[in-house]
Amino acid sequence: MILDTHETLASDASSRTAFSVAAADFFESPLLTPWTDPESGVTSRLLTPVGTPAEQARVAPLQQSFYYVNPSLHITPDGNARYWFYCAFPPANSAHSGRTLAVAEFATGIIRHYPETAFTEASPMLDHETGEIYWANEQGIWRRTASPDDSPQRVAAFPPAITRNRPVRRYATHLTLSPDRRALNIDAGIGPDNPVGQAWLDDGRIEIWQTLQHTYNHGQFNPSPCHPGLLLLAQENCVDQKTGEVRYKDNRLWLVRRGDTRGLYPVYPDSLSSLVGSSYRPVASNSHLETPHAEVRTDPRQMHGHEWWSSDGDYIYYIHYQTGIERTPIATAGTSDARPELVWPHRTVSHAHASPCGNYIVLDALPPDAPDTHHVRFVNLRSRRAIDIVSRMPSPPAAFRPYHLHPHPQFCGPRGDYICYTLIRPEGGADVAFVRVSELVAATA
User: Fold this and answer.
1) pTM score > 0.70 for this model?
2) In sequence order, what DSSP letters do the residues of 76-129 get, joined into one string?
3) Where do the domains of the chain lie?
4) Average pLDDT over residues 217-228
């Protein structure tokens, strides 16, 4: 039943009687439908999947979880759960600027779609404390609450003296809050320039720390107050806008600290080639390109990607393609003592995320040359056992491919009690999905 142009309910029953679904049992919401992986037996809850009674609350053909480092599940002070997610309406644009936001109110069974939240890149981010959602587009950085009575507020934008008639491709790949909650990270794209820095939330002022020429993106504030003003950045492959030629990254992981005279500096300043043996496979397949192909990389630093901070800010985690999930301590980053630690071996891993306690990992594997082996997996580092959440993930249908449709699993909720991800269904659809971490821990004890 449609309530208005933005709001739908899970069922007629929920429109007559609102029920209270606390955070501990929001899985009982009529917006969610159980789905069990036929091989592992793990049960996920799907948000308004097609072909179920919950489908009538669906607000978009493509509903997608946030990028794996961006919070999206809000637990309110009274214990209710709200979940923000991406919406796409093929063939409207692409992952760069063709998606909008919606929020699922599990306590009332209502989903609200906000079409005015069109965003670029993977910029949306939930503030766990306030429940406000932030996003960025070409016009600036914006904020709103989940209330239908609220409206977007622009919190920051580049002044004309910075843009100089040039379009802003992005303000941030994905927004993160500074540990003192006073600023958001900036890793922007303006013409050929890539300014990095922060946007102050009190007055909207954008402070540029450094302007880079090579493409550096995926900026993330270190979450710890022990490391203020520290951004993790990724050196990205560049595509020549005239020829289409790809200039590959030569060292993925970089740091920049506000006021540091070193400017931008690498996490690993020295080659790591001496640390790998004869069995090492220095071949990378870039599935983000329109014409993916394998490239031989001579230095392991060129095989790093999809990085994130530990919840305490003491470690940098990342994917070492063809090897597994690694991490390195911030204490030695940027020095000749920087060394990788293999957290979990997995040759085909694509993305991963660590639980706040650091005892668990969730990952997806999407090797482009072996689509029949795509999966989402939970890893218990304490028991050294793993179980598949999704044993065989189909490739996305052609209409959905422009929207960067990867599972991107992440631990969600302020304590990481749940995992959310995007499930690609065999019949061609895609759904946001949830699974309880406690059930996965029990299955891998």
Assistant:
1) yes
2) -TTSBEEEEEEEE-TTS--TTT-EEEEEEETTTTEEEEEEEEEESTT--EE-TT
3) 157-345
4) 98
